[in-house]
């Protein structure tokens, strides 16, 4: 287990975040920006502890399950939150619930950083207008794709690197020193509440009352079968079977009607 982040580890994570936030790969990076799971896996790969990284990131994902992004705007940046909280949790041996309490405020600050990126992009608009007026397709493509990407990398890489290399070890050291005291208990309680809030949001997004029984069925099955050590593959099979039965029954009622 790493006691601290190396320069290369912090730099690679920062580059990954900049890649996502630049949206240079289009829809792929846009999806990864909305979800912390891929960022958590990459952090785990870089730090050599994918298992613990995914355990922590899965808890963080619960908070953002019901997030929607009208026009691409998010009230928080989950990928930035995961990029900071997962290393802190791994270094400081924090619980997933405690990591959530760190990820949420960091993700909120990340949203302001993303908006600041939009402000910086406005400086590229002058060249875009000039190239468009001249009918220069190559120059216009450069202004649309390359310049905003360069701005994103120049903005996110230094800031995320500093936060990781200098901030994450300090936070994790403090967490390790205070052990299981009051602060850790508060962080775990707050983190657990935020995860519950995320689940409540996704239930609201699902919306249909006819589908909610399946949600509660899955939850209580996981509670009742916890001691049987059933893996996610088996639960996925159960889900597929229930889905097939539901479709068959609803189709039969439709045919009768």
UniProtKB/TrEMBL annotation:
GO molecular function terms listed in the Swiss-Prot or TrEMBL record: transferase activity
GO biological process, one term: phosphoenolpyruvate-dependent sugar phosphotransferase system
Topology term for the membrane: Multi-pass membrane protein
Pfam families noted in UniProt: EII-Sor
GO CC annotations on file: plasma membrane
Alphabetized InterPro entries for the sequence: GatZ_KbaZ_carbometab (IPR050303), PTS_IIC_man (IPR004700)
Subcellular location: Cell membrane
UniProt keyword annotation of S-adenosyl-L-methionine present: no
Transmembrane segments: 6-32, 53-73, 99-120, 140-166, 178-203, 210-226, 232-249
Keyword line: Cell membrane, Membrane, Phosphotransferase system, Sugar transport, Transferase, Transmembrane, Transmembrane helix, Transport
Record-given protein name: Phosphotransferase system PTS sorbose-specific IIC subunit
Lineage: Bacteria, Bacillati, Bacillota, Bacilli, Lactobacillales
